[in-house]
Structures are given as structure tokens and as C-alpha cells.
Amino acid sequence: MDSFLTITAAILLVGSLSSTASRQFDTECYTANGEDYRGCQNQTSLLGGKPCLFWNETFQHPYNTLKYPNGEGGLGSHNYCRNPDGDVQPWCYIADHEDGIYWRYCDIPTCQMPGNLGCFKDSGDPPTLTGSSQTSNKLTIQNCISFCRKQRYTLAGMESGYACFCGNDLDLRRHGKAPSMECNHVCFGDHTQPCGGDGWVIVFDTRVGACGGNYSAPSGVVYSPDFPDKYGAGKVCYWTVQVPGASVILFNFTFFDISDQTDMVELLDGYTNQVVARFDGRTPPREVVNVTGDFVILYFYSDRTNQAQGFAVTYQGGFTHTHTHTHRQTHTQTHTDRTNQTQGFAVTYQGKRHVDML
Ligand SMILES: [Ca+2]
Q1: Domain assignment present for 241
Q2: How many domains does the chain have?
Q3: What is the pLDDT of residues 253-286, one digit of tens each?
Q4: Least confident of 24-38, 61-75, 105-119, 298-312
């Protein structure tokens, strides 16, 4: 826990030093179905939702802490929404039964993977996304994204579990965002993924799950090839992350599922091609990786056997020279911490303020 707090403090410090990095990744979920959600929403929706039952009291149901005593699926002595069974979104048991249903999905505004742009009304005439389309009884989020990406569309939308629409532009004012629950019909090709609803389209950025790309924004997220599907066999992918003016780039693997040690992710110095860090099924990332400089290459390789879901990695450039807006006392403090930080993760910032920000 100490090292986790330390890392978090370091990220926050770098974040606060950066004048241009936006906080675009306030999400608590990096998977499409929120299986990684570990937040604290304990009702089915924030407005007028039903209260969730405690997982250590739901012994009459299949998911409870007696059956899963070691925190599997994020269960514990709490009543927070979770997705322990690979459903399309987090859910919880509720006290009242309606038509024999004793559980409900949770609409969690803070749980939306980067690249999922949201759920939108589709009246069909004209469709919300006006490019190519196809239908498939094997539809998954990624095979729709790939279909659209190959035709150079920037957006891919899934509807009713089997329809895929492509487009380049989404008029948010005209189409108005809907709660995630409207878009949680299962994908016909993968029942753990949400693929829109009847008259509702779930829209993704087609960069999600691409094999390679170039990133230059101050912060961003890179997903493994084919995410949220399993990565394919025999993949060799390179992404460049070049943040002009950054003195350091931090990489945080928010999701990591690689099942063997022949598949791997590496971070290389973009100028020297030296490997800075290497991770595989046996050596998963355990802390934030801090790469000095402004240019990093992310590399992924998979062999022919044992595919898994892959990874989500966020990056954040650090700009050590931009502290003109900080107050003098803070300035001295950040300067000291920054010096420590470039030597690794030696920052021990134990202020409660940072804990609260978690
Ligand atoms: Ca493999």
C-alpha cells in the first residue's frame, strides 16, 4: 500500500507540474464491461437508484464472500457495484424482487473506458453514424472497430448486439448522451461485451485496439491489439509516444492480462532503442514506469499460442520547467520531490490530501 501511495503521489506531482496535460482519464474503468471497476458506487444509479446489498450478506445468491472469500472479482464486505461474472457492466443484488429479478445493472458515470465515447440515441433516419455499416451474428466491439478502421473512419458504433456503423463525426448536441444501461445489449459474438441497444448506439474511437499508432498529446492511453477482444496470434506492434517538451513520461498499466511469458510488452527509449522495461505473463508490471526523456516506443509481441485480453496503459508526460503558477512554498517542495522522483520512485509523500484524492 505504501508503494501504491508513493506512486500515486508521484503521478499527482507530475500532473500538477504539467501546465498542459489535461485530466482526461478520470475514469475508474479501462475495460469495456467494467470488470476492473473497484469504485464505491453502492446504488444502481446516482439518481433514484436502488441501494445495493452487501456481498457478505447475499448468501442466498451465487455471488457472495463465502463463495469468493479472497476478493475475487472485487467482492468483499461492502455493497459496491461489481462485475464478478463477466457481465456487460457492473451490477449488484437488490432487496426488492421485481418479476423474480433480484439484481440490477449499475449506471456508473465514472466507469467508462477511454475510447468509449458513450451511448447515443439513433433514430435511424439518418443514422447517428452515416458511413459504412454491416450486420453480423458474430459482432464484437473490436471486429466492428476493425471494420471501420480499415476504411479509415475515426468512429465505430454498435447497435442491438449485431449491427456496426462507421462515421467520422458525431453531433453530441443533436444526439444527446444516454445512460450506459441503454447500450448494454450483449454483443452476439461476445456475451461479456456491450454492443448498444435497440435504437441506441455505443460509439468507440477506432484507435482502440489498433496494432500501432503515434501519440503526441501530453497524456493518453494505449490498448493492446484487438482490445477488448483477445489479442491475435503472431502480433508485432509498435506505438510511438513522443511528447514535445517532456522531461519524463510515466507509464501506468491500469489493466494487464498476458497469459504466458512468450508474449510481451516493452518500453524502449525512442532515441537509443534501449529497452527500459519488459513485461510478460510471468513478470507483470507492479508499479508505474518512469522513462526519462520525451520519446518512448511501446512494443508488443505475441506468439502463436495462449492469447489473452492484453493491456491498457496510460501515459502522462512530465514537464519539469513549467511551475510559474505555483506558489513559492509549493515551488520549493515540488522541486525537491521532482529531484527525488527522477531517481526512481523515492518520493514519499504522505500528505492526507493525496490519499483523499484517491
Ligand atoms: Ca502466447
Answers
A1: yes
A2: 3
A3: 999 999 899 999 999 999 999 999 999 999 999 9
A4: 24-38
Answer whether residue 353 is part of any domain.
no
Could you report the per-residue pLDDT of 63-114, keeping only the tens digit for each? Answer: 999 999 999 999 999 999 999 999 999 999 999 887 788 999 999 999 999 9
Determine the distance separating the centroid of ligand 1 and the alpha carbon of 266, expressed in angstroms. 15
Secondary structure of residue 74 in the 3-state scheme = helix
Which sign does the torsion angle of CA 74, 80, 85, 87 carry?
A: negative
Would you state the cell numbers that stand for residue 245, as one nine-digit string? 517538451
**Ligand 1 centroid to residue 168 C-alpha, Å:** 34
- Answer for the pair 258, 311: CB distance below 8 angstroms, yes or no: yes
Domain finish residue from 205, 222, 244: 205
Give residue-wise pLDDT tens across range 207-258. Answer: 999 999 999 999 999 999 999 999 999 999 999 999 999 999 999 999 999 9
Q: DSSP letters along 262-328, please? A: SSEEEEEETTT--EEEEEESSS---S-EEEESSEEEEEEE--SS----EEEEEEEEE-TT--TTS-H
Boundary-marking domain end, from 52, 87, 112: 112
Task: Identify whether 265 is part of a domain.
Answer: yes
233 CA → ligand 1 middle, Å = 7
Centre of ligand 1 to C-alpha 305, Å, is 4
CATH, residue 48: 2.40.20.10
Domain interval for residue 68: 26-112
Q: Ligand 1 centre and the CA of 302: distance in Å?
A: 5
Query: Which residue is associated with the grid cell 492484453?
Result: 310
Which CATH number belongs to the domain containing residue 259 in this structure? Answer: 2.60.120.290
Angle at 87 between CA 85 and CA 89, to 5 degrees: 120
